[in-house]
Protein backbone atom coordinates (compact mmCIF):
# COMPACT_ATOMS: atom_id res chain seq x y z
CA UNK A 1 0.00 0.00 0.00
CA UNK A 2 0.93 3.61 -0.51
CA UNK A 3 -0.19 5.50 2.59
CA UNK A 4 -0.03 9.23 3.22
CA UNK A 5 -0.44 10.61 6.74
CA UNK A 6 -1.71 14.19 6.70
CA UNK A 7 -0.39 15.62 9.96
CA UNK A 8 -2.23 18.29 11.91
CA UNK A 9 0.90 18.88 13.99
CA UNK A 10 4.45 17.68 14.54
CA UNK A 11 3.97 17.40 18.28
CA UNK A 12 3.23 14.37 20.42
CA UNK A 13 -0.17 13.75 18.89
CA UNK A 14 1.15 13.58 15.34
CA UNK A 15 4.13 11.54 16.52
CA UNK A 16 2.09 8.83 18.21
CA UNK A 17 -0.94 8.71 15.92
CA UNK A 18 0.72 8.91 12.49
CA UNK A 19 4.51 9.15 12.44
CA UNK A 20 5.21 6.06 14.56
CA UNK A 21 2.68 3.68 12.94
CA UNK A 22 3.53 4.80 9.40
CA UNK A 23 7.23 4.35 10.10
CA UNK A 24 6.59 0.78 11.21
CA UNK A 25 4.32 0.13 8.23
CA UNK A 26 7.24 1.20 6.04
CA UNK A 27 9.37 -1.43 7.80
CA UNK A 28 6.71 -3.95 6.77
CA UNK A 29 7.13 -2.98 3.11
CA UNK A 30 4.50 -0.29 2.59
CA UNK A 31 5.31 3.08 1.02
CA UNK A 32 4.49 5.76 3.57
CA UNK A 33 4.90 9.48 4.17
CA UNK A 34 3.71 11.69 7.03
CA UNK A 35 3.71 15.45 6.54
CA UNK A 36 1.63 18.54 7.26
CA UNK A 37 1.51 19.40 3.55
CA UNK A 38 0.13 16.89 1.06
CA UNK A 39 2.31 16.63 -2.08
CA UNK A 40 0.30 16.58 -5.29
CA UNK A 41 1.76 13.27 -6.45
CA UNK A 42 0.73 11.61 -3.17
CA UNK A 43 -2.77 13.08 -3.41
CA UNK A 44 -3.06 11.53 -6.87
CA UNK A 45 -1.42 8.15 -6.27
CA UNK A 46 -1.87 7.17 -2.60
CA UNK A 47 -4.01 4.13 -1.87
CA UNK A 48 -4.88 5.44 1.61
CA UNK A 49 -4.84 9.00 2.91
CA UNK A 50 -5.08 9.44 6.67
CA UNK A 51 -6.05 12.94 7.81
CA UNK A 52 -5.45 13.97 11.41
CA UNK A 53 -8.47 15.99 12.70
CA UNK A 54 -8.79 17.99 9.45
CA UNK A 55 -11.28 20.80 10.07
CA UNK A 56 -10.12 24.14 8.64
CA UNK A 57 -11.55 25.59 5.43
CA UNK A 58 -8.94 24.87 2.71
CA UNK A 59 -7.97 21.40 4.02
CA UNK A 60 -11.67 20.52 4.31
CA UNK A 61 -12.20 21.62 0.71
CA UNK A 62 -9.38 19.31 -0.37
CA UNK A 63 -10.81 16.43 1.71
CA UNK A 64 -14.14 16.84 -0.07
CA UNK A 65 -12.38 16.98 -3.44
CA UNK A 66 -10.55 13.73 -2.67
CA UNK A 67 -13.81 12.10 -1.60
CA UNK A 68 -15.51 13.13 -4.83
CA UNK A 69 -12.63 11.90 -6.98
CA UNK A 70 -12.64 8.52 -5.25
CA UNK A 71 -9.03 7.62 -6.08
CA UNK A 72 -7.90 6.95 -2.51
CA UNK A 73 -9.53 5.48 0.56
CA UNK A 74 -9.94 8.25 3.13
CA UNK A 75 -9.29 7.68 6.82
CA UNK A 76 -10.09 10.36 9.38
CA UNK A 77 -7.86 10.17 12.47
CA UNK A 78 -8.96 11.75 15.74
CA UNK A 79 -7.75 10.95 19.25
CA UNK A 80 -9.67 13.44 21.41
CA UNK A 81 -13.36 14.13 21.88
CA UNK A 82 -13.21 17.58 20.34
CA UNK A 83 -17.01 17.80 20.41
CA UNK A 84 -17.05 17.89 24.23
CA UNK A 85 -14.20 20.15 25.27
CA UNK A 86 -14.16 21.21 28.91
CA UNK A 87 -14.96 24.87 29.65
CA UNK A 88 -11.75 26.86 29.85
CA UNK A 89 -9.83 24.52 27.53
CA UNK A 90 -7.73 26.76 25.23
CA UNK A 91 -8.56 24.43 22.34
CA UNK A 92 -12.06 25.95 22.37
CA UNK A 93 -10.59 28.93 20.55
CA UNK A 94 -10.41 26.70 17.48
CA UNK A 95 -12.78 23.81 18.10
CA UNK A 96 -15.47 25.99 19.63
CA UNK A 97 -15.93 27.73 16.26
CA UNK A 98 -19.25 26.48 14.79
CA UNK A 99 -17.79 26.44 11.27
CA UNK A 100 -14.88 24.28 12.40
CA UNK A 101 -17.27 21.89 14.15
CA UNK A 102 -19.42 21.59 11.01
CA UNK A 103 -16.32 20.97 8.87
CA UNK A 104 -15.01 18.33 11.23
CA UNK A 105 -18.32 16.52 11.45
CA UNK A 106 -18.76 16.55 7.65
CA UNK A 107 -15.18 15.37 7.06
CA UNK A 108 -15.80 12.46 9.42
CA UNK A 109 -19.07 11.62 7.67
CA UNK A 110 -17.56 11.37 4.18
CA UNK A 111 -14.52 9.31 5.24
CA UNK A 112 -14.35 5.60 4.48
CA UNK A 113 -13.03 4.92 7.98
CA UNK A 114 -12.40 6.78 11.23
CA UNK A 115 -9.60 5.70 13.57
CA UNK A 116 -9.64 6.62 17.26
CA UNK A 117 -7.54 5.88 20.32
CA UNK A 118 -10.10 4.59 22.86
CA UNK A 119 -13.41 2.69 22.97
CA UNK A 120 -15.09 5.65 24.70
CA UNK A 121 -14.11 7.94 21.82
CA UNK A 122 -15.33 5.32 19.33
CA UNK A 123 -18.79 5.54 20.91
CA UNK A 124 -18.84 9.30 20.30
CA UNK A 125 -17.59 9.14 16.71
CA UNK A 126 -19.83 6.19 15.77
CA UNK A 127 -22.80 8.57 16.04
CA UNK A 128 -21.34 10.44 13.06
CA UNK A 129 -19.71 7.62 11.09
CA UNK A 130 -20.36 4.02 12.18
CA UNK A 131 -17.21 2.71 10.48
CA UNK A 132 -14.84 3.29 13.41
CA UNK A 133 -11.77 1.30 14.44
CA UNK A 134 -10.00 1.66 17.78
CA UNK A 135 -6.22 1.83 17.33
CA UNK A 136 -4.86 2.31 20.88
CA UNK A 137 -1.92 4.62 21.42
CA UNK A 138 1.36 2.73 21.44
CA UNK A 139 4.91 3.57 22.41
CA UNK A 140 8.13 3.07 20.50
CA UNK A 141 10.47 0.37 21.77
CA UNK A 142 13.24 2.97 21.65
CA UNK A 143 11.61 4.66 24.64
CA UNK A 144 13.09 1.96 26.89
CA UNK A 145 16.56 3.31 26.07
CA UNK A 146 15.84 6.40 28.16
CA UNK A 147 15.22 4.48 31.37
CA UNK A 148 17.39 5.83 34.17
CA UNK A 149 19.41 3.45 36.36
CA UNK A 150 17.92 3.01 39.82
CA UNK A 151 18.27 4.58 42.28
CA UNK A 152 17.61 8.01 40.81
CA UNK A 153 17.29 10.94 43.21
CA UNK A 154 17.10 11.02 46.98
CA UNK A 155 14.83 12.63 48.07
CA UNK A 156 12.80 11.56 45.04
CA UNK A 157 11.77 14.04 42.35
CA UNK A 158 8.03 14.16 41.63
CA UNK A 159 6.89 15.34 38.23
CA UNK A 160 4.10 16.07 35.78
CA UNK A 161 4.07 16.63 32.01
CA UNK A 162 1.37 18.41 30.07
CA UNK A 163 0.13 21.40 28.12
CA UNK A 164 -1.84 24.58 28.97
CA UNK A 165 -5.08 22.62 28.42
CA UNK A 166 -4.85 20.80 31.76
CA UNK A 167 -5.57 23.48 34.34
CA UNK A 168 -8.75 21.83 35.61
CA UNK A 169 -7.05 18.43 35.62
CA UNK A 170 -4.08 19.53 37.68
CA UNK A 171 -6.40 21.31 40.11
CA UNK A 172 -7.61 17.82 41.07
CA UNK A 173 -4.36 17.25 42.98
CA UNK A 174 -3.27 20.71 44.08
CA UNK A 175 -4.41 20.24 47.69
CA UNK A 176 -3.07 16.70 48.27
CA UNK A 177 0.17 17.47 46.44
CA UNK A 178 0.68 20.61 48.53
CA UNK A 179 0.08 18.56 51.67
CA UNK A 180 2.71 16.00 50.66
CA UNK A 181 5.29 18.62 49.66
CA UNK A 182 4.85 20.75 52.79
CA UNK A 183 5.20 17.71 55.02
CA UNK A 184 8.63 17.01 53.49
CA UNK A 185 10.49 20.22 52.47
CA UNK A 186 13.21 18.09 50.87
CA UNK A 187 10.87 16.93 48.11
CA UNK A 188 10.88 18.68 44.75
CA UNK A 189 8.15 18.79 42.11
CA UNK A 190 8.93 19.46 38.44
CA UNK A 191 6.53 20.67 35.75
CA UNK A 192 7.48 19.69 32.19
CA UNK A 193 5.52 21.62 29.59
CA UNK A 194 3.32 24.04 31.46
CA UNK A 195 3.36 24.99 35.16
CA UNK A 196 0.41 25.17 37.54
CA UNK A 197 2.04 26.57 40.70
CA UNK A 198 -1.02 28.05 42.43
CA UNK A 199 -1.44 26.63 45.93
CA UNK A 200 1.91 24.80 45.93
CA UNK A 201 5.06 25.68 47.94
CA UNK A 202 7.00 27.69 45.34
CA UNK A 203 10.45 26.94 46.76
CA UNK A 204 9.92 23.23 46.06
CA UNK A 205 8.89 23.68 42.40
CA UNK A 206 10.92 23.32 39.23
CA UNK A 207 10.00 23.90 35.59
CA UNK A 208 11.17 22.78 32.16
CA UNK A 209 9.46 24.06 28.99
CA UNK A 210 7.88 21.91 26.32
CA UNK A 211 10.07 20.67 23.50
CA UNK A 212 9.15 19.28 20.08
CA UNK A 213 12.26 17.08 20.17
CA UNK A 214 10.77 13.78 21.34
CA UNK A 215 14.13 12.34 22.44
CA UNK A 216 14.84 15.41 24.56
CA UNK A 217 11.31 15.18 25.98
CA UNK A 218 11.92 11.58 27.02
CA UNK A 219 15.22 12.54 28.63
CA UNK A 220 13.42 15.19 30.67
CA UNK A 221 10.57 13.05 31.96
CA UNK A 222 12.94 10.11 32.58
CA UNK A 223 14.38 12.15 35.44
CA UNK A 224 11.16 11.79 37.43
CA UNK A 225 11.22 9.37 40.35
CA UNK A 226 7.45 9.58 40.76
CA UNK A 227 4.98 10.81 38.13
CA UNK A 228 1.46 12.12 38.61
CA UNK A 229 -1.30 11.87 36.02
CA UNK A 230 -4.43 13.68 37.21
CA UNK A 231 -7.57 13.91 35.08
CA UNK A 232 -10.83 15.51 36.13
CA UNK A 233 -13.90 13.33 35.42
CA UNK A 234 -15.59 14.88 32.37
CA UNK A 235 -17.01 13.83 28.97
CA UNK A 236 -13.79 15.01 27.31
CA UNK A 237 -11.48 13.11 29.66
CA UNK A 238 -13.60 9.98 29.41
CA UNK A 239 -12.13 9.57 25.91
CA UNK A 240 -8.51 10.22 26.90
CA UNK A 241 -5.97 7.44 26.42
CA UNK A 242 -3.47 5.91 28.85
CA UNK A 243 -0.43 7.14 26.91
CA UNK A 244 1.10 9.08 29.82
CA UNK A 245 1.05 5.95 31.94
CA UNK A 246 2.58 3.83 29.18
CA UNK A 247 5.46 6.29 28.94
CA UNK A 248 5.99 6.15 32.71
CA UNK A 249 5.87 2.37 32.72
CA UNK A 250 8.40 2.11 29.89
CA UNK A 251 10.73 4.49 31.72
CA UNK A 252 10.35 2.58 34.99
CA UNK A 253 8.72 5.53 36.76
CA UNK A 254 6.14 4.74 39.46
CA UNK A 255 3.04 6.89 39.12
CA UNK A 256 -0.16 7.94 40.83
CA UNK A 257 -3.01 8.54 38.38
CA UNK A 258 -6.67 9.42 38.48
CA UNK A 259 -9.00 6.45 38.84
CA UNK A 260 -10.53 6.65 35.37
CA UNK A 261 -11.20 3.58 33.15
CA UNK A 262 -8.32 4.02 30.66
CA UNK A 263 -5.85 4.59 33.49
CA UNK A 264 -7.13 1.87 35.80
CA UNK A 265 -7.16 -0.58 32.88
CA UNK A 266 -3.35 -0.66 32.57
CA UNK A 267 -2.40 -0.06 36.20
CA UNK A 268 -1.10 -2.97 38.25
CA UNK A 269 -0.88 -1.66 41.82
CA UNK A 270 2.59 -2.15 43.23
CA UNK A 271 4.04 -3.09 39.83
CA UNK A 272 3.37 -0.02 37.68
CA UNK A 273 1.84 2.55 40.00
CA UNK A 274 -1.43 3.40 41.72
CA UNK A 275 -4.76 5.06 40.93
CA UNK A 276 -6.51 7.49 43.26
CA UNK A 277 -10.03 8.90 43.33
CA UNK A 278 -10.12 10.98 46.52
CA UNK A 279 -7.67 13.47 47.98
CA UNK A 280 -6.65 11.22 50.86
CA UNK A 281 -5.81 8.44 48.36
CA UNK A 282 -3.49 10.79 46.46
CA UNK A 283 -1.78 11.70 49.73
CA UNK A 284 -1.47 8.06 50.77
CA UNK A 285 0.06 6.81 47.52
CA UNK A 286 2.37 9.78 47.00
CA UNK A 287 3.71 9.48 50.55
CA UNK A 288 4.10 5.73 50.19
CA UNK A 289 6.16 6.11 47.02
CA UNK A 290 8.16 9.05 48.36
CA UNK A 291 9.06 7.26 51.58
CA UNK A 292 9.60 3.73 50.25
CA UNK A 293 12.69 3.53 48.08
CA UNK A 294 12.42 -0.25 47.77
CA UNK A 295 8.90 0.06 46.36
CA UNK A 296 10.06 2.63 43.81
CA UNK A 297 12.93 0.40 42.74
CA UNK A 298 10.65 -2.62 42.45
CA UNK A 299 8.24 -0.72 40.20
CA UNK A 300 11.20 0.59 38.17
CA UNK A 301 12.12 -3.02 37.42
CA UNK A 302 8.59 -4.31 36.77
CA UNK A 303 7.03 -1.39 34.89
CA UNK A 304 8.89 -1.80 31.59
CA UNK A 305 7.73 -5.41 31.26
CA UNK A 306 4.11 -4.25 31.40
CA UNK A 307 4.80 -1.46 28.89
CA UNK A 308 6.31 -3.99 26.47
CA UNK A 309 2.77 -5.14 25.65
CA UNK A 310 2.07 -1.74 24.12
CA UNK A 311 5.00 -1.17 21.76
CA UNK A 312 4.09 -0.17 18.21
CA UNK A 313 6.48 -2.75 16.80
CA UNK A 314 4.19 -5.49 18.15
CA UNK A 315 0.86 -3.79 17.47
CA UNK A 316 1.34 -2.13 14.08
CA UNK A 317 -0.54 -4.99 12.40
CA UNK A 318 -3.73 -3.41 13.79
CA UNK A 319 -3.06 -0.33 11.62
CA UNK A 320 -2.17 -2.53 8.67
CA UNK A 321 -5.36 -4.58 9.02
CA UNK A 322 -7.52 -1.46 9.32
CA UNK A 323 -6.14 0.02 6.11
CA UNK A 324 -6.09 -3.25 4.17
CA UNK A 325 -9.81 -3.85 4.79
CA UNK A 326 -10.82 -0.60 3.09
Explain how this protein is built.
The strands form 2 sheets. Strands 2-1-3-4-5-6 form a 6-stranded parallel sheet, with helices on both faces. Strands 9-8-7-10-11-12 form a 6-stranded parallel sheet, sandwiched between helices. The chain has 15 helices and 12 strands. The protein has helices spanning 12-27, 40-45, 57-69, 92-95, 98-109, 119-125, 167-170, 174-183, 214-221, 235-238, 243-250, 261-264, 279-291, 293-307, 312-324, and strands at 2-6, 31-35, 48-52, 73-77, 113-116, 132-134, 157-162, 188-193, 205-209, 226-229, 255-258, 273-276. The protein is globular. Helices cover 42% and strands 17% of the residues. The N and C termini lie close together (11 Å). It has 2 domains: 2-138 and 312-324, Glycogen Phosphorylase B (Rossmann fold, 3-Layer(aba) Sandwich), CATH 3.40.50.2000; 141-310, Glycogen Phosphorylase B (Rossmann fold), CATH 3.40.50.2000. The mean pLDDT is 96. With 326 residues, the chain is of the alpha/beta class.
Amino acid sequence: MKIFGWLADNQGCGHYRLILPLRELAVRGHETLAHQTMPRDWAETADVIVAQRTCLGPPSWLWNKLANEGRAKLVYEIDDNLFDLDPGNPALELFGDPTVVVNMRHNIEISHLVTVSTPALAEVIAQINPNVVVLPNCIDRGLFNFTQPAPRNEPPLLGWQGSPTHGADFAEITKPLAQVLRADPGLRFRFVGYPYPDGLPLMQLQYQPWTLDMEEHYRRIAQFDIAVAPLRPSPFNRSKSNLRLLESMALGIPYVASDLPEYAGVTVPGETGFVARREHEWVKHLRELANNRDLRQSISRLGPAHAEKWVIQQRVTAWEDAYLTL
